[in-house]
Write a structure and sequence with these properties.
Shape: globular
Number of strands: 11
Strand content: over 45%
Oligomer: single chain
Structural class: mainly beta
Radius of gyration: 14 Å
Number of helices: 0
Order of helices and strands: EEEEEEEEEEE
Length: 127
């Protein structure tokens, strides 16, 4: 069974940092481009960053640039989202998603093109 499981969500104070994990089971994540997304209450889901099978990254929007970093550990079949300088506006459910690329590539899919999705992890930024 192909599955993505996010973890690491928490309550954090403004200005704090948090690292989210996206662990895959049932498939080899190194063959997939992986993206991080979020959905705040009352808002549409938005793409944040993508990491390619080559390890390169693409920002889907400017709000993540400079504060959020995506990385992957293929030995652990896991992708991470490091978030710094968190703001209350970052409060949301965070999701990871994977799209099969099946080889070394610099390709990141469009935000609607991902095949597999996790269930999400809650991040709340509040004092």
């Amino acid at each position: 069974q192909l599955q993505l499981v996010e973890s690491g969500g928490a309550l954090v104070q403004p200005g704090g940092s948090l690292t989210l994990s996206c662990a895959a089971s049932g498939f080899t994540l190194s063959y997939y481009a992986v993206g991080w997304f979020r959905q705040a209450p009352g808002k549409e889901r938005e793409g944040l960053l993508c990491i390619t099978t080559n390890g390169g990254s693409t920002n889907y929007q400017d709000s993540a640039k400079g504060r959020f970093t995506i990385s992957r550990d293929n030995a652990k079949n896991t992708v991470y989202l490091q978030m710094n300088s968190l703001k209350s506006a970052d409060t949301a459910v965070y999701y990871c998603a994977a799209d099969g690329v099946y080889g070394p590539s610099d390709y990141c899919p469009g935000v609607t093109e991902y095949d597999y999705w996790g269930q999400g992890t809650q991040v709340t930024v509040s004092s």
